[in-house]
């Protein structure tokens, strides 16, 4: 299981955060995702054999936001 945090850009209201969460949660292999609007952070844990960080970034982008992986 991989656990990463991302900075999320473009969220303005609580619904934005929910949209990001739902979009990422749809991906197969996600174990847990949690988005904090105030800190603009997303914590995610997932099965690295099922998907990659790129897939997660793409899902956030498709939802209309931007995800930058914290190193
Ligand atoms: Mo809130 Mo976010 O009205 O795209 S859903 S700003």
Automatic annotation (TrEMBL):
Annotated signal sequence range: none
Protein name from the UniProt record: Copper-exporting P-type ATPase
Organism: Pisciglobus halotolerans
Residues of the whole record sequence present: 1 to 71 of 823
Coiled-coil ranges (or none): none
Compartment(s) of residence: Cell membrane
Family: Belongs to the cation transport ATPase (P-type) (TC 3.A.3) family. Type IB subfamily.
Domain HMA as annotated: residue spans: 2-68
Superkingdom of the source species: Bacteria
